[in-house]
Fold this protein.
Amino acid sequence: MEVCALRDAAPDLQDVGAKVFGISTDDVAAQAAFAKAEKLNYPLLADPEGVAAQAYGVLMGRRPFARRVTFVVDPDGKIRHVFRKVNVRKHGAEVTAILKE
């Protein structure tokens, strides 16, 4: 099983009122299999056409893949912070720290 700092930081993220969603260009079936294998405690959204990835500027060229980026979005929908480099071992703590600021 892969390290998933966001999954593991769920109690801390909930304490600061955060809601976590994952999204990738994988299809629904692949997302469901990944979520089950990793025992994720947050929803994964499928973007197989890359529409959201393109809108957020994370689509990797013409390939149907997106860079691993985290956006912290406030309740009004405004992007407050962008993590362009994600370390799966430390990311939960990094996100929690930004949210506490």
Q: What stands out?
A: The mean pLDDT is 90. The helical segments are 5-8, 10-15, 28-38, 51-55, 91-100. The longest strand covers residues 79-83. The radius of gyration is 14 Å.
